[in-house]
Write a structure and sequence with these properties.
Keywords: DNA recombination, DNA-binding. It comes from Plantactinospora solaniradicis. InterPro entries: CB, DNA_brk_join_enz, Integrase-like_cat_sf, Integrase_catalytic, Integrase_recombinase_N, Tyrosine_recombinase_XerCD. By secondary structure, the protein is mainly alpha-helical. Helices cover about 55% and strands about 5% of the residues. The protein is built from 29 helices and ten strands. It has helices spanning about 1-10, 20-30, 40-50, 55-60, 80-95, 105-110, 130-140, 145-160, 170-185, 195-200, 205-225, 250-260, 265-285, 295-310, 320-340, 370-380, 385-395, 400-405, 440-455, 485-500, 510-525, 530-535, 540-550, 550-565, 575-580, 585-595, 615-620, 630-650, 655-679, and strands at about 415, 420-425, 435, 460, 470, 475, 480, 570, 605, 625. A hairpin with a 5-residue loop joins β1 and β2. It is elongated and about 125 Å long.
Length: about 675
């Protein structure tokens, strides 16, 4: 009402009705011959003035008493006449600074006809949103759906502001609209305020449509440069899993910790983990209102609950061990860091440690077998959406993380000097960019998406990691395409095409399995650890060694080469292997750990409980054996030992001469054992 007071103080026409002459000059002469005749509109104005001679009283009255579709207007003989004439008159008053239309009244009424010829009286009309429609179409929205979506918020904001110029809309106007909409939808009497609600319509569907309308309006206005702040898409779905807030003292220190330590993109995830703990604490120990009061006994109760009572809100089943570990780990790190920093309102001693973490099984990579891989790739090639196809092919041939693929920039694709495509993957989880080779099939699919996105000439979006304005490949309608659209939905279609679904019809292939497959294939083909690290974006060799473990196929091949009947073997253990004299325990262990026994010149079958062995130095251990695959290494080692013996003789070191000659003799014996078998 500040604007109203300012205007009233200037002696204006604020809160004054139009006279007959003023209204005739505004409406009747401007729209002769239209459906709503001058007589109709004068009747609407006259009936409104009879009901509300004082505009101040109208503005102060409850919204239910001011509705056109409420009594006495709902009982009028010509309801549509009253409604249109009443609404037009009130809207004209607002557009001429004679009153302010509040949002509850605007939400309770419909204004679709203001985008027809009659809307020109208010500065709107059929062409009012044309620039927004054109921009919406350019950035990927479909018409006429976008036109209808834009109208819902734009008309109401213009009427509330008393200004039809959408070029003056600000972020504050859009945020005010959202806040007022939330408040209106939460009213106890909302179902009596709109005719469709009274008739049984869903408030939630109407609310969702208007939320989408204000979101789309901000996207298009941002693309046009009218507003500078890009909109963040916020789901308005139900949240039955939303947990209550913690006591203020606890909430304050947790929020301070999150803002200081975590990147913005992980804030929601961290808050979810903390609320698991704080909601449990509020329920079981309401007396704890400050973390200083927290004790080890209470945390042990929480650990027990996490292991036995923490269930998924959707399925009602106990959460996975990894979720338990994540929940406890977040709390453990928080307590230790805040203690080290000397913060107040936190325990003065460590209450958790790594020993409190549940034991987690270390699984092997779930890579895709060749037949399944080929089948799902055929399904990906059958996808009709170019963005889905390109995203899935990049995942298959390079194995980036899903978030890295979504954030690919328009200039991400170039080529090596020989012309092979090269992909620049943006900084993501590891905060490091990397360049990797890209299969030509994925490169061709990516070029199609780059061309389509460039043609739309969209405004850049702020990158969540770098904070810089960025033009993305997978950008449409003012935001990044979702993980669900690019991967989940796409792979469900591909798996349906390939027949790779479970009993419930759900896909059996996820985008991360492509990452496991790429890492496993690189390891099996003998790629260096540094290569696997570079392609998959690992920051430590230990992460890549996870993939460097030989696959089941490779283990079986090596095992059968060495231990199957008739294998080409030499060494002290060769006879025991040929005669099948190994114990059942040794065979079971070797069947899964054979590759771990590899030495420079062969293998040692010594079990872990037997302790260390130096058989690779002396080649006389009863557990040592070698195969024909090591012949070249044995030849090189033989020459080396002979040269070392000659050098030791020249230096006058007789004991070294004896040692090197003995080793050379043992190697020569191994070669003699292998030689007849390879002829």
């Amino acid at each position: 009402m500040s604007r109203a007071l300012d205007v009233a103080g200037q002696g204006s026409t604020w809160l004054r009705h139009f006279t007959d002459d003023e209204y005739t000059a505004l409406v009747i002469s401007a729209d002769k011959g239209r459906y709503e005749s001058g007589r109709t509109r004068r009747q609407g104005r006259r009936e409104f003035i009879e009901q509300w001679p004082d505009l101040g009283a109208w503005m102060a009255a409850p919204v239910a008493d001011r509705l056109m579709h409420a009594p006495p207007y709902a009982e009028a003989r010509h309801r549509h006449v009253v409604v249109r004439g009443h609404r037009l008159y009130v809207s004209l008053l607002a557009m001429h600074d004679r009153l302010t239309l509040d949002y509850p009244w605007l939400f309770a009424n419909s204004f679709k006809d203001l985008l027809t010829e009659s809307g020109k009286l208010l500065g709107m009309g059929p062409d009012w949103l044309t620039p927004l429609d054109v921009e919406a179409l350019r950035i990927g929205y479909r018409q006429p759906a976008a036109h209808r979506t834009l109208a819902g918020a734009s008309i109401r904001i213009a009427l509330h502001r008393g200004n039809p110029d959408w070029r003056t809309i600000t972020v504050e106007d859009l945020d005010r609209f959202r806040a007022e909409l939330d408040a209106f939808a939460a009213r106890d009497d909302v179902r009596s305020l709109r005719p469709e609600f009274v008739a049984g319509g869903r408030v939630r569907g109407w609310y969702r449509n208007l939320r989408t309308s204000v979101y789309t309006t901000q996207v298009v206005l941002h693309s046009l440069g009218v507003v500078t702040e890009q909109v963040r898409y916020i789901s308005i779905g139900g949240r039955p899993h939303q947990r209550p807030s913690a006591p203020p003292a606890i909430e304050k220190v947790i929020n301070r910790y999150i803002e200081r330590t975590a990147p913005a993109r992980t804030h929601d995830n961290l808050r979810t983990r903390f609320r698991v703990f704080t909601s449990w604490l509020t329920e079981h120990h309401p007396e704890v209102t400050n973390l200083v009061q927290l004790t080890r006994t209470q945390l042990e109760e929480f650990l027990t609950w996490v292991a036995t009572g923490y269930c998924n809100y959707r399925t009602g089943q106990p959460v996975s061990v990894s979720t338990q570990v994540h929940t406890i780990s977040v709390l453990n790190v928080f307590l230790r860091k805040t203690l080290a920093w000397g913060w107040g309102d936190v325990p003065d001693r460590p209450l958790l440690s790594h020993l409190d973490m549940p034991k987690q099984v270390k699984t092997v990579p779930r890579y895709l077998p060749a037949l399944e891989l080929e089948a799902v790739v055929q399904g990906i090639r059958a996808l009709t959406d170019p963005y889905q196809q390109a995203a899935c092919l990049i995942a298959r041939w390079v194995g980036p993380r899903r978030s890295e693929i979504r954030r690919l920039e328009l200039d991400c694709l170039d080529a090596y000097p020989d012309g092979h495509p090269r992909l620049r993957i943006p900084a993501g989880k590891t905060y490091t960019e990397r360049m990797v080779p890209l299969h030509p099939e994925a490169a061709d699919a990516l070029r199609v998406c780059v061309a389509q996105t460039r043609a739309r000439r969209q405004r850049p979006l702020l990158d969540q990691v770098t904070g810089k304005p960025t033009h993305y490949v997978f950008q449409l309608r003012g935001r990044l395409l979702s993980d669900y659209f690019l991967f989940d939905s796409a792979l469900q279609q591909a798996c349906d095409h390939a027949g790779l679904v479970d009993a419930d019809g759900a896909k059996t292939v996820t985008s991360h399995r492509f990452r496991h497959t790429v890492g496993t294939q690189l390891a099996e083909e003998g790629a260096r650890i540094q290569t696997i690290m570079a392609i998959l974006g690992h920051t430590s060799p230990a992460m890549s060694l996870f993939y460097a473990r030989i696959s089941d196929t490779a283990v079986l091949r090596d095992y059968q080469t060495a231990l199957q009947p008739g294998a080409l073997l030499a060494g002290p253990a060769a006879e025991a292997i040929r005669n099948n004299e190994l114990s059942e325990q040794a065979v079971n262990w070797l069947s899964s750990n054979y590759y771990k026994t590899a030495l420079e010149l062969g293998h040692c079958l010594r079990l872990p409980e037997e302790g260390p062995c130096e058989c690779d130095l002396f080649l006389t251990c009863s557990k040592f054996f070698t195969t024909a695959d090591y012949q070249s290494r044995l030849q090189e080692r033989l020459c080396l030992e002979q040269r070392l013996a000659e050098d030791a003789a020249q230096r006058g070191w007789p004991r070294e001469v004896e040692r090197h000659n003995a080793t050379a003799k043992r190697i020569a014996g191994l070669l003699d054992e292998l030689a007849p078998q390879t002829r």
